[in-house]
Amino acid sequence: MSSIHLVLGGIRSGKSAYAERLAAAIAGCQPVLYIATGIAIDTEMEERIQRHQQRRPPNWQTLEASLNPVGALQDRVGTIDPAPVVLLDSMDVWVSNLMLEHEGTPRLELDSRIVGAARRFADYISETDRQAVVVSSEVGYSLVATTSMGRQFQDLLGTVNQAMAEAADQVTMVVAGLPVPIKPAATGAY
Q1: For the chain, is the Cβ count within 10 Å smaller at the N or the C terminus?
Q2: What's the rounded Cα separation, in Å, for the pair 84 and 106?
Q3: Looking at the annotation, which residues are catalytic?
């Protein structure tokens, strides 16, 4: 049975490490398909990506999909044994990548396109027999950005997070490394 568990938190809250432990627990001894959205655009981001890579167990598969996770998943159908658990890390980087890729697109069209992409991911997972753990930054507690693009990102990510939370069976907020359940599963799973 498919399900989505959204893991939210601030920067350096421990959300990715928690999501990795959660995905490993759900998968048991089976591999996890880690969908990486980050792009190594500078030294700091390269180091961040390396830290994430070093934490992953050797039997996990990595799928780099900075712009289209659903398309990347569909391209792999039939090429490998599908992992029962997908870990998407992270929605906020994915949203940022899409904003930069489609820079210059009118705001309402861009917002609709990106929210639609997040909904397509949730729909795709619900049509499979996979369980997904999705990581995203919570922007509601941060300062309002000082640039127009920064404010657009915050508004858009907040909307994407709400759409994913609505589709999710469970939502957990990670604060200072501690998971705080926000939306429990109806069946009590995991």
Answers
A1: N
A2: 38
A3: 52
